Each structure stands twice: as C-alpha cells, then as structure tokens.
C-alpha cells in the first residue's frame, strides 16, 4: 500500500512540474474547440484591415455589402447545418442556410462554411466552394474572426466581431 502511495505522489509531482514548465505564451490566433461556437451569435462590428482605403466597398462572402453583416445573426447548431440572417434596409435581408465546421491547425482555428440555400442535406455535401475565417481572438461570449482577400496585389483582412446572443 505504501508503494502505491509513493507512485501516486510521484505521478502528481511530475504532473505539477510539467504544468509549471509548459509554455504559457499565446499566439495571435488561438485554437478553439468546435463546441465553443455552438449557439447563436450577432456580428457587432466589421472592419477592413491592411489598407488605407476608407471608402473600399466590400461584398462579403459573395453575398451583400460588408456593412449589411453588422447586426446579422449566426446560428451554429451541433449538427453543422446552421444559418446566418441579414437584417436591415438595402441589404437583401433574410436567412442564408450554411453547412459549418471548424478546423484546428498549428494552433489556429478556422471557422469554415458553405452556402447551401435550398439544398437538401444529402445534396449540400457536394457543394465544393466555401469560406473560411481565422479566429484571432475568443472568449466565452465573443470571438473575432478575419477573412483574407486580395486587393491591389496584397492581402487585406475583413474582420468580424461576434457576440454570443
């Protein structure tokens, strides 16, 4: 019995030392588990970074003007079949059906989705084109994601601020 106690104590000590010696630095991006996105979110703000052009007109996700995404409501259910709803005047308001997923790679989480409006579930898996946003910051009730686009030979980023509803 004493031998078992010594082994348990040794394992606890190794565990504590391993935790204390782990690298605590955070990168600009972070790995976020898929379940952290589940639920309903509202885009509270959008911006374009990497260019000085203030009057740049951006059509986000081949859908509507970037400003129309402010106030949009995104739903990410467990089954991967979600939606986002555009609100507001002059914005082609209404819901868009999506198939969503996340991918974690090298400490970075990408939130990916494909538009599947009007398709049956078995047809939606055949949609080849989609969109990806890199999650650059996250917390329990918010996250920030960015999408790269090419503009005048350089990469700029469309940034979306999400707040849990």
Beta-strand segment tally: 10
Helical/strand content category: mainly beta
Q: Can you summarize the main beta sheet?
A: 8 strands, antiparallel, barrel
Strand order across the largest sheet: 1-4-5-6-7-8-9-10
The overall average pLDDT, rounded, is 81
- Overall shape: it is globular
> If helices are DSSP runs of H or I spanning 4 or more residues, what is the number of helices?
2
Termini separation (Å)? Answer: 53 Å
Order of helices and strands: HEEEEEEEHEEE
Radius of gyration: 21 Å
Stretches with pLDDT under 50, minimum 5 residues: 1-28
Q: Classify the beta-strand content into a percent band.
A: over 45%
- The percentage helix is 10-25%
Give structural notes:
The termini are far apart. The strands form two sheets. The protein has an eight-stranded antiparallel β-barrel. A two-stranded antiparallel ribbon has the order 2-3. The radius of gyration is 21 Å and the shape is globular. Strand 4 and strand 5 form a beta hairpin. The protein is built from two helices and ten strands, in the order H-E-E-E-E-E-E-E-H-E-E-E. The N terminus is likely disordered. It is mainly beta and 165 residues long.
Short description:
This protein is mostly beta strands.
Q: What is the topological layout?
A:
Blueprint (H helix, E strand, L loop, with lengths): L1 H19 L18 E11 L9 E2 L3 E2 L7 E4 L4 E6 L7 E12 L2 E8 L5 H4 L6 E9 L2 E10 L2 E11 L1
């Amino acid at each position: 019995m004493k031998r078992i106690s010594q082994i348990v104590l040794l394992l606890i000590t190794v565990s504590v030392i391993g935790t204390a010696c782990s690298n605590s630095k955070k990168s600009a991006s972070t790995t976020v588990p898929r379940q952290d996105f589940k639920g309903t979110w509202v885009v509270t703000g959008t911006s374009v970074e990497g260019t000085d052009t203030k009057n740049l007109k951006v059509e986000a996700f081949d859908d509507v003007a970037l400003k129309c995404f402010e106030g949009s409501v995104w739903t990410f259910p467990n089954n991967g079949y979600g939606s986002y709803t555009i609100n507001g005047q002059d914005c082609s308001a209404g819901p868009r059906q999506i198939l969503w997923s996340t991918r974690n790679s090298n400490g970075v989480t990408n939130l990916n989705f494909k538009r599947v409006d009007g398709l049956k579930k078995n047809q939606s898996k055949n949609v080849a084109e989609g969109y990806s946003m890199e999650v650059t910051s996250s917390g329990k009730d918010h996250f920030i994601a960015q999408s790269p686009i090419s503009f005048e030979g350089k990469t700029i980023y469309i940034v979306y601020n999400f707040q849990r509803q």
